[in-house]
Design brief:
This protein has one domain: Ubiquitin-like (UB roll). The chain has two helices and five strands. By secondary structure, the protein is an alpha+beta fold. It is globular, with a radius of gyration of 12 Å. The protein has a five-stranded mixed sheet.
């Protein structure tokens, strides 16, 4: 089972292969924001990939366009609702309470 580590919580959990980062977070009660409900209509589930970018699904055009409009996006940003986990990854949550 792939593992996802969520920073700054320093919490590592197992992910079902093919589940999104958001689905993994919700399954383990990790408070990853998702104002649109995971439909790629906002950027509140944005994460920055620290390690393991190659273990995530490729970015689709809709995700790319959404991130291009986000003020706080970085080169290593992904939307948690769109990035599917295929191997171990370390991500930093961008929007925290």
């Amino acid at each position: 089972m792939p593992k996802v580590t969520f920073l700054p919580l320093k919490q590592t959990v197992e992910a079902n292969p093919g589940d999104s980062i958001l689905e993994t977070a919700l399954a383990h009660d990790i408070p990853l924001h998702h104002a649109c409900g995971g439909y790629c209509a906002c950027t509140t589930c944005q994460v920055r990939v620290i390690e393991g970018a190659q273990n995530l699904s490729s970015m689709e055009e809709e995700e790319t366009e959404r991130l291009e409009r986000a003020d706080d996006a970085a080169a290593n940003s992904r939307l948690g609702c769109q990035a599917k986990v295929n191997g171990d990854v370390v991500v930093e949550m961008v929007h925290l309470d």
